[in-house]
Design goal:
Elements (H helix, E strand, L loop, with lengths): L2 H30 L5 H30 L1
């Protein structure tokens, strides 16, 4: 497999890591959210951004892998 063929799979792995970090942050933020702390709102928002960007990156990686 050449470098061009490896790139989508590396991107897919990076997307999975981003989504996993986002889910862990979401779990941590949702536990803190009951305290109505400003940090909890920030952490939950960051987690949502990471999850959605990871999903978008997954779609791009799968599309790139299918076209190679």
């Amino acid at each position: 497999m050449n470098r061009r063929g490896e790139a989508p799979w590396r991107m897919l792995f990076a997307a999975l890591v981003i989504v996993a970090v986002g889910v862990l942050l979401m779990l941590h933020g949702s536990n803190m959210l009951l305290e109505m702390d400003l940090l909890a709102v920030f952490v939950t928002g960051l987690a949502a951004i990471l999850i959605f960007s990871g999903i978008t990156l997954m779609v791009l990686a799968v599309t790139a892998a299918a076209s190679v």
